[in-house]
């Protein structure tokens, strides 16, 4: 199986950093753990991109992280593009 490239859209990267900063304001250790959890879960997408639920927007998929956050991504020509990282309570799309 060929390697799948993984990339973060600038909005997704901004979401990720904002969430980490928000968590770190109260608990830096929890922010570090969250960052590691997201990175580990996202890394699994390169091996099994189709094992998560179809997204609410056409051509997307949604990976749930910690029952609270949703990684929204799309597959494009052998690569995975992370589109957003959203809190589950947030209205999406």
UniProtKB/TrEMBL annotation:
<protein>
    <submittedName>
        <fullName>Type II toxin-antitoxin system RelE/ParE family toxin</fullName>
    </submittedName>
</protein>
<dbReference type="InterPro" id="IPR051803">
    <property type="entry name" value="TA_system_RelE-like_toxin"/>
</dbReference>
<comment type="similarity">
    <text>Belongs to the RelE toxin family.</text>
</comment>
<dbReference type="InterPro" id="IPR007712">
    <property type="entry name" value="RelE/ParE_toxin"/>
</dbReference>
<dbReference type="InterPro" id="IPR035093">
    <property type="entry name" value="RelE/ParE_toxin_dom_sf"/>
</dbReference>
<keyword id="KW-1277">Toxin-antitoxin system</keyword>
<dbReference type="Pfam" id="PF05016">
    <property type="entry name" value="ParE_toxin"/>
</dbReference>
């Amino acid at each position: 199986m060929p390697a799948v490239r993984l990339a973060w859209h600038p909005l997704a990267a901004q979401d990720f950093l904002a969430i980490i900063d928000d968590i770190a304001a109260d608990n830096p250790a929890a922010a570090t753990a969250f960052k590691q959890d997201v990175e580990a879960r996202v890394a699994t997408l390169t091996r099994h991109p189709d094992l998560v639920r179809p997204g609410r927007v056409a051509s997307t998929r949604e990976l749930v992280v910690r029952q609270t956050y949703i990684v929204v991504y799309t597959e494009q020509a052998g690569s995975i593009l992370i589109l957003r990282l959203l809190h589950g309570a947030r209205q999406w799309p």
